[in-house]
Amino acid sequence: MSTSWNIKPVSRENSDAILHKINMKTKPLGALGLLEDTAHQLAMVQGTPEITINQPTMLVFAGDHGVSEEKVSLTSSDVTRQMVLNFLAGGAAINCLCRANNMALKVIDAGIKTPINDDRLIIQRIGTGTRNLAKEAAMAEEEVLLALEYGRRLAKQLAAEGCNLLAFGEMGIGNTTPASCIMAALMNKPAAECVGRGTGISDSQLKHKIAITETALARIGSKNDPHNVLQEVGGFEIAQITGAMLGAAEAGISILVDGFITTASALLAAKFAPACRDYMLFAHCSGEQGHQAMLEALGATPLLQLGLRLGEGTGAAVALPLLRSAAEFYNNMASFESAGVTL
Ligand SMILES: Cc1cc2ncn([C@H]3O[C@H](COP(=O)(O)O)[C@@H](O)[C@H]3O)c2cc1C
Ligand SMILES: O=C(O)c1cccnc1
């Protein structure tokens, strides 16, 4: 069983014209650095003379992980639910950074241990947390399919309502472990290069986390098959983010990727449908070991390097003003001709 994705690669047809427009702005060639690449990509995706950033929305998917019983995190699964309540109350880092940067925030229960009854929460529960990937497949095949579909549907609904930029964040105690497993499997790298300290675990916890990752990897039949990888070592929120990224690309809108965990989803999405990569922008390089290599594997140059290692979408929220700056210079900066400036 598999899902097919209907993603149009972004047309290269306008690439030269967009580059020309950027190069004719009143500045030395390339002097706006990564802002130029960002404008180029947004303009390519949008295919319109001006770049717009409409209803930019942060989607934070929450899910619990059976592997947290292995003490691979600083804290217990209970904190996932407590943090979702914190999101709903407006008190978490991501709430502050979305407020500071004028970004809408939606929180999705993709399958935390104990449900929360609150109208503001989007309920897309797959279960009460995944199974322990150290011992067995984290998810059932149907759970993977349902999670991908839930994510896809939400992204397409938001695009239909006028959003043209979706950013992705996550909350799930233990989820750097599945993200490391996904990285190791899809990039065919040793566990030790993919596993980091997440919330800040000790040396002995790190050793155990690497051992678990190796055990789980040995169980994956086809390491190059994103569906198989998700089933063995994925997570409900990781799978829904993957589906939502693919859904965003199907809808032709931009994807803003955050840290280590959402980049693992991006790797999966690009494996399901390589054209999805055309729609992705990368906010930052996290302090989590392995993130840099994952970004390189995706050919990504992240906008920021702030030493963030939190997730929740925080890096993506902080990067949004850079996208707005890219749009503003692209749309409104004078050209040599219009300003009468000669080199
Ligand atoms: C209070 C708190 C708030 C968080 N917000 C995001 N994370 C981050 O830490 C978790 C991943 O790290 P690990 O794999 O080590 O558990 C995820 O929930 C991630 O979003 C948090 C973690 C904590 C403790
Ligand atoms: O980079 C991330 O997304 C990250 C790093 C550590 C813990 N949680 C998330």
Number of domains: 1
Order of strands across the widest beta sheet? 3-2-1-4-5-6
> Which superfamily, in CATH terms, is the homologous superfamily?
Nicotinate-nucleotide-dimethylbenzimidazole phosphoribosyltransferase (CobT), large domain
Portion in beta strands: 5-15%
* Sheet of most strands: 6 strands, parallel
Kindly name the structural category: alpha/beta
Instruction: Report the top-level CATH class.
Output: Alpha Beta
| Ligand inventory | alpha-ribazole-5'-phosphate, nicotinic acid
Give unreliable regions as ranges.
Answer: none
The end-to-end span amounts to: 60 Å
Note the overall shape.
Answer: globular
CATH architecture: 3-Layer(aba) Sandwich
Catalytic activity: 5,6-dimethylbenzimidazole + nicotinate beta-D-ribonucleotide = alpha-ribazole 5'-phosphate + nicotinate + H(+)
InterPro entries: Nict_dMeBzImd_PRibTrfase, Nict_dMeBzImd_PRibTrfase_bact, Nict_dMeBzImd_PRibTrfase_N, Nict_dMeBzImd_PRibTrfase_sf
Active site: 312 (proton acceptor)
Pathway: Nucleoside biosynthesis; alpha-ribazole biosynthesis; alpha-ribazole from 5,6-dimethylbenzimidazole: step 1/2
